[in-house]
Amino acid sequence: MNYRVTHTTEFVYEAKVGLCYNEARLLPRELPYQKLLSSGLHIDPPPNDYYERFDYFGNRTVYFSTQQPHERLEVTATSEVEVSPSTLLEQNSALSWEAARDQLRQGHSAQILEACQFILDSPSVGVDEQLAEYARPSFAPGRGLVEGVHDLMQRIFREFKYDPEFSTLATPLKEVLEHRSGVCQDFAHLAIGCLRSQGLAARYVSGYIETQPPPGKERLVGADASHAWFSVFVPDLGWLDFDPTNNQLPGEQHITLAWGRDFSDVTPLKGVAYGGGKHELKVAVDVLRRNGNGR
């Protein structure tokens, strides 16, 4: 599938900002199953400094500063990507979750050591007994790792209500677990915490998903949104993605932007502004499927 993704973030300030520094993770990754055809950022007003690098996790990261007075900042990321089904979806693993846990504890390969950092607590996901208790029904003794994670994904989908009014970026996982409500970010964090509570490696993935309008309704430009899911490390396969919000294994409709330990590692746009007072934030995302002729 070919997609054109447009992600616009606009800050409108009540007074002029004299100087701002920003960090953006808005450009998709290049992956075996995801080919990046084009990508770029348009920033208004134009930045005085701008440079791009790969961060610790290999995400494309742009740093820029605006050193002229402004009352509005608009950052638009436009990318064209080609997404194919991951070959991992076609493979099966009979590895039990205990065997996977033990390999992470005892293995010394570069792949295992890299995955081990995703077992530890991170800023937004701290393992506790509540998460371990919620995870246990999915990880009975001897159960296959992939089967157990799939069961966990299905339970989160069935037992939690998608409610964009319930949580914010600061809502603790224990409240999400208590009220059985949240959004895709919360469900990804919840699954990651459950997996880490069992000694398994799990990471947070940010990106986009193609959405379709209800039958008989027109597709609204800019009405899409950023999305989040999680990956679990399967020692004999690699990293396998799961989307608990939609109860599915991400495929051609999921576009991967960045990954890290949790949301704090992949924040789309953050920075510091000097002056400006209060501000209004507007975000518009458009995920448009295109044919082979670029239309």
From TrEMBL:
InterPro entries: Bac_transglu_N, Papain-like_cys_pep_sf, Transglutaminase-like. SUPFAM superfamilies: Cysteine proteinases (SSF54001). Pfam families: Bact_transglu_N, Transglut_core. Residues 176-246 form the Transglutaminase-like domain. SMART domains: TGc (SM00460). It comes from the Bacteria. This is Transglutaminase family protein. It comes from Geoalkalibacter halelectricus.
